[in-house]
């Protein structure tokens, strides 16, 4: 290998090493800045900040509310509809059970049910549904535009199969979202997550949140 080739090889190696060092530093710095790093199990393309956002909806009592009114403590959000024959009741019951398990451990978490069925889900119907699931569960509905906006904020999907059928089913995503006041989205849970697994995970996040915000989380 001649002198020029050697220099080129050394330069290329140095660039690779520097690149790996920058990547390692960026990853380490990111983890250091993330108060929830030790709790996270899911990966969100673009980062957790890409999910969630402000919303204005109508609660189960017919009152217009914003995300600031609803998310006053750690909360678990779920998008569904009351006419759903199986998935929504099962997922909502799972979330309610996880909240009850957390209550027994001394954690206060609010389950939230956001309807994607603005045509049929009146505040009265949602209240009946949420009261049955858990006394703390908050039900939300809204106009088609409001529901579409909050759905897009949380990257959820829903589609009415037949708008002209009063008994139509709605295809929709089934993830549940853990969110915090001010900091917003923290984690999502799939359908196969058990109440115990959810409770364990949420407890980890709440502990980390309290440690990072001892004054703001004092009431929780």
Automatic annotation (TrEMBL):
Keywords noted in UniProt: Membrane, Transmembrane, Transmembrane helix
InterPro entries per the UniProt record, alphabetical: SCO1/SenC, Thioredoxin-like_sf
Membrane-spanning parts: 7-27
CDD domains noted in UniProt: SCO
Family: Belongs to the SCO1/2 family.
Protein name stated in the entry: SCO family protein
Species of provenance: Thioclava nitratireducens
């Amino acid at each position: 290998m001649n002198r020029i080739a050697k220099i080129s090889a050394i330069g290329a190696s140095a660039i690779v090493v520097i690149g790996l060092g920058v990547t390692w530093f960026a990853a380490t710095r990111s983890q250091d800045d993330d108060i929830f790093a030790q709790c996270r199990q899911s990966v969100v393309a673009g980062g957790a900040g890409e999910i969630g956002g402000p919303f204005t909806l109508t609660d189960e009592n017919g009152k217009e509310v914003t995300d600031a009114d609803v998310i006053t403590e750690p909360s678990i959000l779920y998008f569904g509809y009351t006419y759903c024959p199986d998935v929504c009741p099962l997922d909502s019951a799972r979330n309610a059970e996880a909240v009850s398990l957390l209550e027994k451990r001394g954690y206060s978490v609010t389950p939230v049910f956001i309807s994607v069925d603005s045509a049929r889900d009146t505040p009265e119907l949602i209240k009946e549904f949420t009261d049955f699931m858990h006394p703390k569960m908050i039900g939300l509905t809204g106009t088609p535009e409001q529901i579409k906006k909050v759905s897009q904020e949380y990257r959820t999907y829903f589609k009415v199969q037949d708008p002209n059928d009063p008994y139509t089913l709605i295809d929709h995503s089934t993830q549940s979202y853990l969110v915090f006041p001010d900091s917003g989205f923290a984690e999502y849970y799939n359908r196969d997550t058990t109440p115990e697994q959810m409770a364990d995970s949420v407890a980890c996040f709440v502990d980390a949140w309290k440690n990072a915000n001892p004054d703001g989380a004092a009431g929780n």
